[in-house]
Amino acid sequence: MAQGYKSGGPGDGDYWGSDPNRTRGSTVQGFKQVPSAPYNLRCEAKSYQEATVFWELPTGKEISSINLQLFKDQGYGSWSKVKEDSFESTTRSVTVTTSGPLEKYALQVRADNRFGHGDPESIKLG
């Protein structure tokens, strides 16, 4: 995966996954729900510009894909999305290569299903 991120920043509350049409952690059409956020994110730096990020998948809800967004720190609290990709529902890690030092990047991981986007979880790479 190459580079990737958006204005706002990791941990900016409503910034991550701020889709007004999506229900956060509550019931959608009866018992149909979006997945919870992936958890236990951890990052292992492989070099100055490459890291592997690992996570655990939420249980209890159907997952159809894993969405990843890579963001770059633009300074002054501003983040820009550099890349977005979707992966198979069983994906539990990804290796990220950036164009600059890892500490300027963050990765957001989200589980999705046919009912919508689950809550994202993010981690700084450096």
TrEMBL record:
Residues 1-29 are annotated as: Disordered. InterPro entries: FN3_dom, FN3_sf, Ig-like_fold. Residues 37-126 form the Fibronectin type-III domain. Residues 1-14 have a biased composition (Gly residues). Pfam families: fn3. It comes from the Eukaryota. This is Uncharacterized protein LOC109479036.
